[in-house]
Fold:
Amino acid sequence: MAEATQKSYYWTGFRAGVPFVLVVVPFGLLFGVVATEAGFTSLQTMAFSSVVFAGAAQFAALQLMVDNAPMAIVIATALAVNLRMAMYSASLSLWLGDAPLWKRALIAYVNVDQSYAVSINKYEDEPQMVLSDRTAFFFGAVTPVCPLWIVATGLGIWLGDGIPDWMALDFAVPICFLAIIAPMMRTMAHMVAAVTSIVVALLLAGLPFNLGLLVAAVLAMVVGAQVELWTVRRAKA
Amino acid sequence: MSTGYIWIIILILGVGTYLIRFSFLGLIGGRDLPEWVLRHLRYTAVAVLPGLVAPLVLWPTATAGEIDPARLSAALVTFGVGLLTRNVIAAILAGGGTLFAMIAITGAY
Structure:
């Protein structure tokens, strides 16, 4: 009986994950193309996508590496992009914290923006789900997305240099980032944080080692948190 | 870019990213996380990505840092459509379409 519901939760999760194929495939393809263009070997590109497994951070790192930024800056910036996953990890642990260690270890590896978002929504909508239902749903939601990230990267490598100059591939990365950022502008605090990040990054663009971006990011986080506090206080008053 | 530079970055980013993902789920448990930490973590993505993109949009390497009408309008359309539709794919398609249309019109890339 329990096995039957787990199976059905797996497939409910699977269906919830399917639409994200449309995001992951072009994004992974693009990473393969851009990394190859930047001079990565096929092995390096595939390793990047399967070991790091985080699109936005991979593009951020790649951009800085092309600019010959020092290693410490590349790592600090890309990890900063991924810090949001600490938040995902914290909020998932409320629902999945009692799962066996090997399951949590696997969940951590495949925890990407999309799987996090659909799973948390589901858990909050149906709090009566038991632990095994929740993990089944989570693994279902990542199944259509995660393997395709690596396959799409491979396809991108294969397409590689076949892309002509007029396609302005240099600008594919900014467009992808902008498309990801725009829907994140949920509250006033998010918007003010984004504007802070832009203004400070532009003002400090002359700093060595791309340090300006790190300073901008830290300031923007603090500003976002402060605006949130202020909004909450004002709503209560 | 040297081979060592690339491999070390891949390795450290891989381990670091995994530790970030595993952190609370694996070791600490989110139950005890102070609210002020969560409040800052909420803004990490919107704090990093816009600052990363802004110089690429205003001073593209492809035009040696000159402001480029095609790239600038593509960026604005992408962001605008993303804001209005909250749909990543729609925003990418609209932005890409604008970029190619502008390149076709101006003939410059």
